[in-house]
Amino acid sequence: MEATLAPARPDPARTIRRPRRLLTVVALLTLLLAGLPVVNQPAAAVQDVVDYTGTGALVLGAESVNVRDCAGFDCDTIGTLTVGERVVIAGPEEDGFLPVDSQTGDLSGYAYALYISIDGLPAPWLEEGAAGCNRVALAFNIGVGQPFDYGILATLQEWEVPATFFAMGWTTDRDPETVQAIVDAGFPIGTHGYSSIDLPTSSDADIVADLQSSADSIRAVAGDNWIPYHTPFAASTDERVRTLISAEGFLPVGWRISAADYAADADPDAIWERVVPNIYDGAIVEMHIDAPNSAASTGVALPWIIEALLARDYQFVTIPDMSLPCGVTTSDLEGGSTADATPAATTPEASGARTNPVVTAAG
C-alpha cells in the first residue's frame, strides 16, 4: 500500500544494506519455551518450579479475564474474573496458566499467568513479546503537551497498522477531542499517568493518586476502548512502582526501543535509525504523537518504518496482543462488542480466530 501523507521515502533497499545492530535481548527461557511473552520476573521464580498454592493474588491487565477448564487457550472458558478481583492460587503454573479459585468459591480453573499478580512476588510487566511470529507493537505516549499530530493517526489508518496509545490525564482533560479521535479510529488506549512526575521518587500515595486520576479522565472519554495498561513517564520505573501499579489492576508496560522523538529537534532520519536497524521479533517501540516536532519527524519517519518492517515480514499488533503467545490475539478471546473496536482484528493472525464458548477481554 502506498502512503500519500509523507514526503518520498528513502530507497527501500537501505533497509537491506544497513547492518543490523547487535541486540541484547534478555529472555526468560522458560516463558519462551511455553510460547509466552517475556515479562520481568526474578529468575528463580521462573526457572524453578515453585508451588504458590494457597497464596492470594490479584487480577490485572484486563477488564475481565477468562477462566478455563484446562491450561491452554484452546480449552473451554467456564467463567470470568474481573480486574481487581482477588483469587487464591490453587496449584503450580502449567504451560503459562495458573490454577485459581475465586474468593467466593464458585469458580475454579486456569487463568493466563500474566494477568495474575501473586502476593509477595514482583509484579508482572511487559517489556517485549514472545519471539516466533515476527510481531512488532507501536506504543504512542501522549503527554508532551504540544498539538496532537492527526497526520500520524491518519498514516496508521491508511496503512491499516494496529497501534496502542497511552495518554496522560492532564492532556485528556485539556483536549478530550484527541482521545476521542483515537477512540473513533478504533485504537485501544491506556494510561501514561496523569502528570509528568518521576514515579520512583514519588510516594506510594502520590503514585496511586496519579494513576487513578488519569484512569478516570481517560475512561470517561475512551469508554470500551479503555485498557488497564500503564506506561511510565520518561520510562522511569522500578519494582516498587510496578507493584503499586499492578495492585490497582493495571499491567505495567515498558519498551526496549524508543524513537526518542519527544524533543523539538527530533529528526525523521534519526528516528528511522533508532527503530529499523534495532528491531527484533517481539519488540515494543515507543513513540510520541504530541511532541514539538511530531509532524515533521515522527510523521515523516512513520511510513518509512512501516514500509521497511512490512518488507521484512513483520506483523504489527496492539500491546494487548503482544502480551499473548504467538498465534493468539485478543480477537480470539473477545466478543464482537470489543473485538470489533480492536485494530489488531485486521492483522494476519486474526484471520484464523477461534470461537470460544465464552469470550471476554483476555486470557
Jot down its keywords.
363 residues, alpha/beta, SH3 type barrels, TIM Barrel, 2 domains, eight-stranded parallel beta sheet, 13 helices, 17 strands, disordered C terminus
Protein described:
- This protein has 363 residues and is α/β, with parallel strands linked by helices.
- It has two domains: 87 residues, SH3 Domains (SH3 type barrels, Roll); 194 residues, Glycoside hydrolase/deacetylase (TIM Barrel), CATH 3.20.20.370.
- It has 13 helices and 17 strands.
- The strands form four sheets. Strands 10, 11, 12, 13, 14, 15, 16 and 17 form an eight-stranded parallel beta sheet that branches. The protein has a five-stranded antiparallel beta sheet with strand order 7-6-5-2-8, with no helix packed on it.
- Helix 4 packs parallel to helix 10 and helix 9 packs parallel to helix 10.
- The longest helix has 19 residues.
- The radius of gyration is 20 Å and the shape is globular.
Q: In CATH terms, what is the architecture of the largest domain?
A: Alpha-Beta Barrel
**What gross morphology would you assign?**
globular
- Give the helix proportion (percent range): 25-40%
> Mind telling me the CATH superfamily name of the largest domain?
Glycoside hydrolase/deacetylase
Q: What is the number of helices?
A: 13
Radius of gyration: 20 Å
Distance between the termini: 33 Å
Top CATH class of the largest domain:
Alpha Beta
Mean pLDDT: 82
The assigned structural class equals: alpha/beta
Biggest sheet record: 8 strands, parallel
Q: How many strands in all? A: 17
Order of helices and strands: HHEHEEEEEEEEEHEHHEHEHEEHEHEHHH
**In the CATH scheme, what's the topology name of the largest domain?**
TIM Barrel
Sequence stretches where pLDDT stays below 50 over 5 or more residues: 1-7, 11-47, 334-361
- Count of individual domains: 2
Which percent band covers the strand fraction? 15-25%
Organism: uncultured Thermomicrobiales bacterium
GO molecular function, one term: metal ion binding
Protein name: NodB homology domain-containing protein
InterPro entries: Glyco_hydro/deAcase_b/a-brl, NODB_dom, Polysacc_deacetylase_ArnD
